[in-house]
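Researcher: First entry.
Model:
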Amino acid sequence: MTIKSIAFRDFIRGQIPADILLLLDKKSKKNKGLYVSPQYAEDVLSFIKKKEKEKKEKKKHALLDFVGAFGDMDDPKAKHQEIKASKYE
């Protein structure tokens, strides 16, 4: 597996000298994208899906931790600030 940086314009012209290409803008020197050869595409996609799933689960868990505080409160008419303050004291 080889990794190279290449100008985006050169990539458009059909130059693919490596399995993984980091596409750069020549003028601003910023990343424009990533090209992955078909033989590594499935591995990269599964990695990205796994990361996205972990991110969603982390957000969901944080939200459920906060929402769970509503059922534990003694005063059901408590304001949002009071619930949050009592949860993090």
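Researcher: Second entry.
Model:
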Amino acid sequence: MKTVAEIKAEIEKLKWLVEREQWKQEEFKKCFVIMPFSMTRDSRGQEYWTSFFDDFLTESLADCGYQALKCQPTSGSIVRGIMEDLAWADVILAVLTDFNGSVLYQLGARHSLQRGRTVLICQDDQISNLPFDLRHYGVADYSPSLDRAPFVPKLQDRLAKIGDETRDSPVSSFLTLRDFYCTNRALACLRTAMETLRRFNGDKDDFRCLAAVDHLNQEWGARAIQLTIFKDDKVRCHVRKDVIGISAFECAKDVTWDHQSLYRLMRSDGKGIRLGGIEGYSGRITALAYDTLAERDWLVLVEAHLKQGGL
């Protein structure tokens, strides 16, 4: 026979799951697009590519349940903002038509991060000229007439096949996924955490926000992932209640060199990802993905742990 407290806890968990599903349905999933912005071959200029994004690609992605977000053009090398998009975006779509150098460079940067969840599209009469290593991973083609009717099912098929750690690039096929498995888990869970916490921006107190952190920790515990909140250099929320209120420097005993706590670096960066280990736990890889929730002055940390030697 379950106790009243156990029944109440199960009801709260069900309410949380229902609320989270409602959140998911309120917003489109986000897809960052890397594509040409200005003149390419066949005299396609800025006007063409703007229309391509606004009228063809945005509507096609909406039909698939995604919101299209476009990286902004820059002069010179890729600036930090675009690199952050490539590293943090859950889904990337690359337009390979006309073989634009900037697009190919950005796609290479995404592949080198081994984030997975990258979809390629190209005009159908140009696919045969794509490098084999790219064609091998599947490209959704569209006609020069930009007819969405035949394109959308192809795009849906590619999006349906992406996964958290999909081997969708030449890079991920030849390098070990062990370290990157950790990194991808940490990045994906941090994104979920930040989107969840921002739902409570209008709340004056932290009660519901901290309850959401507890729910996420319960879900992620079986996958060796944990979420920690720091405020005023102290632990505000943690999977272990006995460490709440202690010094953040003592809690964040993740090390990369010289046995130094990474908390000071994380607080200084405000946002980033690092690989390290845990004091006293040899043979374990830890990926730390962190961001700042400015509304509450919280440093949000997701740790993904993995034992050496395999998944």
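Model: Note on the second entry: The two ends are 38 Å apart (CA to CA).
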